[in-house]
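User: Okay, second chain of the day. Same drill as before: sequence in, structure tokens out.
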Amino acid sequence: TEWALIVNIKKTAVMVFNSSGRQLKESETLRYGQCIAIPSVKSYCYLGTHFTLCGSMKLNQEKLRTKGLRAYFSLKKTVDLSSISKEAIFKLFDALIVPVVSYGCQVWLPYTHLISSICKGNRTEKDIITHLATDSMERLHISLLK
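Assistant: Same drill. Structure tokens below.
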């Protein structure tokens, strides 16, 4: 290549972000060198954050929620939660599960449905609570605290 870079084709993919969320024909024609085609994908995981073609962070939230559940069940398997105080459970939750489910939140949080609904000025308290109840991260939090 003209920049003398070596590209690992196994870890390289093409994503053309667009509002429709469909793969564009133009994205399928990218080649590396003379004959190596770089695949076009609908989603890509970069540094633990999942990106999709339409720019939605819903897939990323669901993946983090799954990882959070895995961390919770691992904690539950290791520690008998019924034998410790609520305060200790909350500290364990904050120390072991919150970092997992909030990983990369600086990137994905501003684009969540919950934040966009709160930022709209004409929302009532009931609307915000309704959106809060449907948020995947909040559902995880509530289910773990039951």
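The two ends are 57 Å apart (CA to CA).

User: Thanks, on to the next one.
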